[in-house]
Design brief:
Layout (H helix, E strand, L loop, with lengths): L14 H7 L2 H4 L3 H17 L5 H20 L3 H4 L5 H13 L12 H38 L3 E6 L2 E7 H26 L1 E2 L15 H8 L3 E2 L3 H6 L2 H27 L7 E2 L18 H25 L12 H24 L2 E2 L1 H7 L6 H10 L4 H18 L8 H7 L7 H4 L2 H6 L9 H16 L3
Parallel strand pairs: 3-4
Antiparallel strand pairs: 1-2, 5-6
Helix pairs in contact: 3-4, 3-7, 3-9, 4-6, 7-8, 7-13, 7-20, 8-11, 8-20, 11-12, 11-13, 12-13, 15-16
Bound molecules: arginine.
The site of arginine has 10 residues, from helix 7.
């Protein structure tokens, strides 16, 4: 079979080896972008006086006809036997318009073509992932609103640390997800450079107006150097990093959801619609979807590490190794999209159990409040910490908590304890005492919720 480069060779390629090098099965996803980039290229050639207006019109119309045909019958791409999506487009174009179609590739290389295609692709697809991040943040907002003034323990070292508002926990995930949105935005900006005009590596000898191409294709800038451009897939690495980081986030969220919906915590009830059962144990209600999110995060990290390893040994310029980028990026994209959707669906449908959470937030984790109470009454913090620690030690040994102490008991530890101690040592008082804007105080959390809701309507 003739391919894009058979002219130089005496014999046909080894069919199995040729098949091994084919990428159409993967890069068919770039079909729309290849057509868009090719149409702009034809117009740039026309502007440079390389193509006649008649040929240009025929090419542009022919490319649109290919687009219509592929949209009507996407399986066309599966039936085709071309080396890659670029070869597919050229063959389909020539089949439709003949001779003029053979002029399209003038002054252009597939090295820059695949770069422009992939950049166009990521530029239009990253916003969909960002939208997915917003949907997860919306689920956090819904849970934060549902939580009202409910309290729960926060954890450090997975040990009860201090009481916090349940809303504060959801908004903490939201705050982190906003960074993920930003990281995707950075990746989108990095993809936003127009590479055409770089040729195979040395540039092109036709008077191509690269600014015109950038404008036509909606790019903000033109790449700086043709050698760099032909072998540059940093933008792919940045995309994979943004995906891996967001997947890492969702994995940590998954871990929280799995723990908090377990019998041991019982802080939330998993909705039936997002849980699975066991074929053997009738009592089981498993969080499979979140376990899968956690599992897929491992893959996302592997994809990033794998891609960096592929790039690290390459000499300057295009090398075929770079063809591997698309399979990795598409799998990262698909996994992230699925995990965002799943996480939002699970979080949105969690039912809180405020009584269980408050109970867990009412024990010895109020020890900091005991110390702060004494500080408020004039004791130096270090001394207050010691007194509180002694109370905790005794209560822990007796299997009791602060609520079991009467005033006499309190005063045995320090004379500064008075009636007010009973009001000060509750989860609600602990939360209300937190004042800084990042803290779990009801005022700061209300402001954070308002800020998050504003962000959801206009993320940036
Ligand atoms: N399929 C190739 C890729 O994805 C397109 C560029 C091919 N260039 C070449 N010189 N073989 O990288």
């Amino acid at each position: 079979m003739a391919n894009l480069w058979s002219g130089r060779f005496d014999s046909a390629p080894n069919a199995e080896v040729f098949d091994f090098g084919k990428s159409l099965g993967v890069d068919k996803r770039l079909i729309d972008d290849d057509l868009t980039g090719s149409s702009a290229w034809a117009q740039a050639l026309s502007k440079a006086g390389v193509l006649t207006p008649t040929d240009t019109d025929a090419i542009v119309a022919g490319l649109e006809a290919v687009r219509a045909a592929v949209h009507a019958d996407p399986a066309m791409l599966d039936r085709a036997d071309d080396e890659d999506v670029h070869a597919f487009v050229e063959r389909e174009l020539v089949a439709r318009i003949g001779e003029a179609g053979k002029r399209l590739h003038t002054g252009r290389s597939r090295n820059e073509q695949v770069s422009v295609d992939f950049r166009l692709y990521l530029r239009r697809r990253i916003p969909m992932l960002q939208r997915g991040v917003v949907v997860v943040v919306e689920a956090m907002v819904a849970q934060a609103e549902l939580a009202g003034q409910a309290t729960m323990p926060s954890y450090t070292h997975l040990r009860r640390a201090q009481p916090v508002l349940v809303a504060h926990v959801w908004l903490s995930h939201a705050a982190a997800l906003r960074r993920d949105w930003d990281r995707l935005e950075t990746a989108r900006r990095e993809a936003d450079l127009m590479p055409l005009g770089s040729g195979a590596i040395a540039g092109t000898s036709y008077a191509i107006d690269t600014e015109f191409l950038a404008r036509t294709l909606g790019f903000s800038r033109v790449t700086l150097n043709s050698i760099d451009t032909s072998g540059d897939r940093d933008f792919v690495a940045s995309f994979l990093y943004a995906c891996a980081m967001c997947m890492t986030r969702l994995s940590r969220l998954a871990e929280d959801v799995i723990l908090f919906t377990s019998e041991e915590f019982g802080f939330f009830e998993l909705a039936d619609e997002v849980a699975t059962g066991s074929s053997l144990m009738p009592q089981k209600k498993n969080p499979d979807p979140m376990e899968l999110v956690r599992g897929k995060a491992g893959r996302a990290i592997g994809v990033l590490a794998g891609w960096l390893a592929t790039m690290k040994g390459l000499p300057l310029g295009y090398n075929k190794d770079l063809q591997e980028d698309k399979a990795l990026a598409f799998s990262a994209e698909d996994d992230l999209a699925g995990c965002l959707m799943t996480s939002a669906a699970v979080v949105r449908t969690l039912t809180p159990r405020p009584a269980v959470m408050r109970q867990a937030a009412s024990g010895l984790l109020l020890a900091t409040e005991v110390a702060d109470y004494l500080v408020g009454r004039g004791l130096p913090f270090r001394t207050a910490h010691e007194v509180s620690g002694k109370v905790v030690r005794d209560l822990y040994e007796a299997g009791r908590d602060f609520s079991s102490l009467d005033l006499q008991n309190w005063q045995r530890y320090h004379p500064l304890f008075e009636e007010g101690v009973f009001r000060a040592i509750t989860p609600e008082a602990a939360v209300a005492a937190r004042l800084t804007p990042q803290s779990t105080g009801p005022g700061p959390v209300e402001a954070a919720l308002a800020d998050t809701k504003r962000w959801v309507t206009k993320p940036a």
